[in-house]
Amino acid sequence: MEGAIAQLKADGVYKRLNYLESPQAAHVRMEGRGEVLILSSNNYLGLCDEPSVVQAGHDGLKAYGAGTGSVRFICGTFAVHRELEAALARFVGTPAALSYVSCWNANEGLTATIAEEGDFVVSDALNHASIIDSVRLAKAITKCTTAVYKHGDLDDLREKLTANKGARRRIIWTDGVFSMEGSIAKLPDILQIARDHDAIVVMDDSHATGVLGATGRGTAEHCGVVGEVDVITSTLGKALGGAAGGFVAGNAALCDMLTQRSRPQLFSNALPPTVAASALASVQFLEAHPERVQQLRENAKYFRQAIIEAGFKPLPGDTPIVPIIIGETAHAIRMSEMLLDEGIFVTGFGFPVVPQGTARLRCQISAAHSKDDLDRAVRAITAVARKVGLSK
Ligand SMILES: Cc1ncc(COP(=O)(O)O)c(C=O)c1O
Fold first, then answer.
1. For 10-39+290-387, which CATH superfamily applies?
2. What integer is the mean pLDDT of 18-29?
3. Is 343 left (phi over 0), alpha (psi -120 to 50) or beta?
């Protein structure tokens, strides 16, 4: 193990943890560095330190205590979980929802619960790691058939569904927003393909909940198809308060079956009640303040335009994820460290998170950023690119 770690360091791809001494916000206090501007958090709406969200966490702690004590069906579940799940279902436009301690858990528990031997599960090549693992697990557990279609390639998706038309059931898995690209799934087309091939659509909307659509209801709202996606999974650890937690949203029978059978529900504690309370307050805040989503959209547009005017060619897109491709992993990590020396925190992502040779600085914009913050970030990225001789 020590040898492998030394090699990561020698290759310049070792990840260092940066410790924060203040709440997650546009500006944070970082141990050993002082005030730092963050452009790499999922705090899209600035709700991590929103007073009503923090207060709800305090109130939840007082009302329900610190822990859940065990698994939900074994020792009882809390009223705040039910309230949160009703709010989440209302928000994303499904009849029901079920919470998990993370979206990773929600995804992992889902496929093996809904798929059976004889079913066919097909997944976009750039889907999140939690979906990839979920499908692998489902294949191992249920002996269902699985395949991966080329990213966003709907002809490939159609071909794979046609080749498996004899399957008992077909399930299409897609991200709503692809987190490393900042691109949006072609959801209306995917829904049409699902209708044509009698398939179920399951969409992970972790980077779209609270982000896309006029009121932040996600990819379905962005595409004008709220209520048409069979199953939506998402996280509470990004726009919705940023603490932790995830959920599956769909019909009541699905949520009931997940309660009966999905392994994280049966063998792992529920979301701590204080976290459920602050997530519920985040949903309520967002329902009362859709203008936060508009602010996020304006900020993302402003930054994208400014970074293009500075000569960079970020991957195109309509989301607050603005990736600047650097190439080598070590270069992306080095640039990220140089930016931190300038007081700007933008993470460099390399292999194995993204394919070899496509390492990137992934800038993430928040409604909490001011125009000055965004201008400062563009100036710093430009200066660092010049120092390392990066041709933009
Ligand atoms: C698309 C997607 N799905 C799932 C997750 C996992 O979310 P959580 O942190 O709630 O486990 C992430 C987080 O990175 C994600 O980007």
1. Aspartate Aminotransferase, domain 1 (3.90.1150.10)
2. 96
3. left
